[in-house]
Amino acid sequence: xxxxxxxxxxxxxxxxxxxxxxxxxxxxxxxxxxxxxxxxxxxxxxxxxxxxxxxxxxxxxxxxxxxx
Length: 68
Prior knowledge:
The protein is mostly helical. It has a domain at 12-53. 50% of the residues lie in helices and 0% in strands. The longest helix is centred in the first third of the chain and has 12 residues, at 12-23. The relative contact order is 0.06.
């Protein structure tokens, strides 16, 4: 048997996802809508710069008190 004529292998996970997508075609659109709610946000670069400038440097060992 040639390596090019072998039957195509699909894992159980891939088969499950394909079947789920066939049963519920709106699944991908729902996933994209959910992602847009939490992750796809427009960032204000000037605010990000201000946050970076206001950051307080952390000491090497955070639980040790400052010696005076």
